[in-house]
Give the backbone structure.
Amino acid sequence: MRRNVALCLANEAKEVLRLAEESAVGLRLEMEVAEKLRLANDVNVKLHRSNEAARALFLAKESKMALRLAIESAEATARTKDQFIANMSHELRTR
């Protein structure tokens, strides 16, 4: 009878150890999944920041182009005005 009790206890102990190992494996898997999720979130944050930086760069280039066009237009207008004044001055002097 004692042998049967000892055998039952040994079997129970083995089962407890097996369950503990499974639990430890499960815990390790949970930790690995949590780490991978954290890394994925970090990548997502970096991509979001990269997209924001790219958008800011695009807007800056777009603004620079608009400013360049406005300057060119203002310079062309100034040249036209100067030419008109020069022509009118010549007309007034030669009459």
User: Anything to note?
Assistant: The chain is about 100% helix and 0% strand. The chain has a mean pLDDT of 88. The longest helix spans residues 2-94.
